[in-house]
Amino acid sequence: MTKACLRATLRVLASVVALAVAASGNEHACSDQDKGGGACDVFSTLQVHRAKTVQFQSSAFFDVLAQAFSDLAQLNSSAAAASLDHVSETEMFEAVELLSTATHALHEELRTSQTLTLLQGGETPVTSASAQMAQLLFSLFQQALLSMSVQKLQTHLIVRPNSFPNLLYLFKMVEGVLANIPTYLVDLKAAFGSTFVCAGQVVFADAVSLKRFLTSPQARTTQLGVSMLERDSLPSLDIGERLSLTIVLSQQREGGNGDFEAFVSAFKKYMFNDAAKARQKDATAKKLLDCLAQDYVEMPHGRGTRVLGLVEPNGTSFFVGKQGLNLFLVKYLHYVFFGLDPTDEKTMNKLYALFFEGFAGTPLVGLYFEKFGLPNLVWPPQMNAVQKIYEQSPALATFESTAEIKYMTRSEYARTAIALMAIAGILGPLNAAQSVMGFAPFPSWPGTELGSVDVRPIWDELDLSDQTALRSFIMECLRVSPPVSTSHYVTTKPLKARVAGWPRTFPVGTQGTTAMNVGGVDPDIWGPSVGSFDAARPNLEADLMAFHSVGRQAAGRRCLGQETAMTMLADMLAVVGAARRALPANP
Questions:
Q1: Per-residue pLDDT at 6 exceeds 70
Q2: pTM for the structure as a whole
């Protein structure tokens, strides 16, 4: 999951809540006597609220909160405590109080504050507003989610998912945002040990388990790491409305029907092939890199400021505006993967508009996230136009719907390619480029000084003609700040693990998290120098997890675009780096 995915998730959350507020108007107001602050007062407030707002379809988000409170109210008794596994009565009441207080505070804050107004756009930068939303959730729920009593309660809910499903959904919703803050899972590991639960998933955060899951076949569902995806928004057309996005499909060895393997082979055949590799090294790609270097020289290209999982631009237009890095990625990647003409401004503008503005003026990736029961508010008008562009691209000129790819149609391929580009193909390289070029500070990993490392002076000292040195520098940046932080899997047999001090058996269908970002700062993998930036570390390439693999070891899910991204980033560092050194002064 990327920084842009976190931003998109927050925008989806804000949009739904804003609609709920607008639809129900003053009916959300609580009387003074409802604001007593105790758990019983909170329960009655939310139940009254639910009765008033359930008639509005757009109150879905507030209804989620009300339903969670309904579950909490049922738990708020000694009888309920007796039904919980390995959760004492004292722990249960503590967990209920902590969650009730946090959820009620979230309800009141969203109902009365300016946070939603900011998140709707206007003159407030998207990053600034989204950071405020992330900060709000973090501040309200941090105490509860870092408490052992709440950890034990969530563990019980995952072991018995039908016991209090609304409360489990609340965990998935809130931590589906918070767990995309880079250091959040590390904090949970410090609090609960190397195996814990988060966002309705089981997390194995030790080195051995991380390596095992990254090198094993996986069953999947409609998730993007710790965050829920919306089934109806995913590409599914032409043949029985089957899902075609490979990141949500199970592999055959874990119960899949072969669609994953067939569709991956289609993308390898038409996008990730020798022709794409050749285009990366031709004169057109070189010209695009030269234009990028010129933009870097002419535009503000300073360092951003990290706020939780997001990066404030600080007026740095090269990294966040249309001109500069974003438009370069649209042109370069669509030239390399699809053979599209980067000088065709009309086509390039359509592509930029879809991928960076396609979801209510924000990146298209937000389209695919769960919207708490609401349908997509606006289907991007550019979607069909870009699908046609892909279908008619040089890369698909020889496309054939064959048994080898399970008769995937040209339109299925194109619509799936849009989703892949939106979720990973553009945002992954964008996040990586922002890190290696020094715009995005590293996360402030606990016990290290990595958050204060500025890679630009290190970049300035690299031999720009040495591809090995450039690639090692990139890999060390991605170790510390991987562009995709987590992935998910689904268990196909009962899962035994010791969580929150007790041995547990999780049922078939339990979701798990593979936390590549935690692996990147694990001393059991990287040794005592884990907290230092060292592009010469001997096991860097062999143990790197940034591409959903352990170095070159994988089980069919290693990032298809790894070599494309590494080549592009190395060429960017070389060409832009030379232009940077010619400047009279560098920040």
A1: no
A2: 0.89
